[in-house]
Specification:
- It contains nine helices and twelve strands.
- A hairpin with a 2-residue loop joins strand 4 and strand 5.
- The strands form three sheets. It has a six-stranded mixed sheet with strand order 6-7-8-3-9-10. The chain has a four-stranded antiparallel sheet with strand order 2-1-4-5.
- By secondary structure, it is α/β, with parallel strands linked by helices.
- Pfam families: ABC_tran.
Length: about 260
């Protein structure tokens, strides 16, 4: 699924958090949006899943404007894991994941055996099957995060929008979650704080600074010393992993 930001400006105050962002994301691409706190990562993602309408510009999902297309059509095509999703704590984990199937149902439809199979598969893929029958209120933050990812996968979306998907996850589940997402073959746009994870999993990195695109392209072109210093105010370098050769990011304080 193609995703295009065409001159998008958006925000909650008089000073927009995102300013004149133009990006074209091709089908099947895994785009990591990185930047310091307050750079506009979450704001940009919210314009995709209709949580925040752009002040100017357009967001295109495929050939359709995200804000003029039918709501149900966007919900069927776009799976979301957002930072502010409560998850319905009175539900069990399995019931929470079932919510991902509802965009595909009519007003009076019930889940079919096929829908239940999709739910169980999503629980298995994310490792959430271990606590599928537990109430969400009893789960740890990392466990709830895995349920929310499973719910997004249960939608069987063509575009997956992830806002800090590795929040609360331990290192093993951070790696497995992003490996899973990267293996799906669908378009993914994810806001990530950890540059090392972005470098290892994304095909394209977009670095935001104060709401504008400071750099965009393959990890090797974006993760440079100049970008580390200008955008993140740190020193750093990218080295190959000695085991698999994938890029690893090493960060250091700027020299005084």
């Amino acid at each position: 699924m193609k995703l295009v930001f065409d001159g998008v400006t958006a925000g909650y105050t008089e000073v927009p958090a995102v300013r004149d962002v133009t990006l074209a994301i091709v089908p099947g691409e895994f785009v990591a949006v990185v930047g310091p706190n307050g750079s506009g990562k979450s704001t940009l993602l919210k314009t995709v899943y209709r949580a925040l309408r752009p002040r100017t510009g357009a967001v295109l999902i495929g050939d359709d404007d995200a804000w003029t297309a039918r709501h149900n059509e966007v919900a069927r095509r776009v799976g979301v894991l957002g930072q502010d999703q409560a998850g319905g704590y009175d539900f069990t984990a399995r019931e929470g994941v079932r919510l991902g199937r509802y965009p595909h149902l009519g007003a009076f439809d019930r889940l079919t055996a096929s829908d239940e199979h999709v739910v169980e598969e999503a629980l298995e893929l994310t490792g959430a099957h271990e606590f599928a029958n537990r109430p969400l209120s009893t789960l740890s933050g990392g466990e709830r995060q895995r349920v929310l990812l499973a719910r997004a996968l249960a939608q069987q979306p063509q575009l997956l929008v992830l806002d800090e998907p590795t929040n609360h996850l331990d290192p093993a589940h951070q790696i497995s979650a992003l490996n899973l997402v990267a293996s799906l073959g669908i378009t993914v746009i994810a806001a990530l704080h950890t540059l090392d994870l972005a470098a290892r999993h994304a095909t394209t990195i977009v670095a935001l600074k104060a709401g504008t695109v400071a750099a965009a392209g393959p990890p090797a072109e974006v993760l440079t010393q100049a970008v580390f210093r200008d955008v993140f105010e740190v020193d750093g370098s990218v080295v190959p992993d000695p085991v698999d050769g994938r890029p690893r990011v090493l960060l250091r304080e700027l020299p005084s």
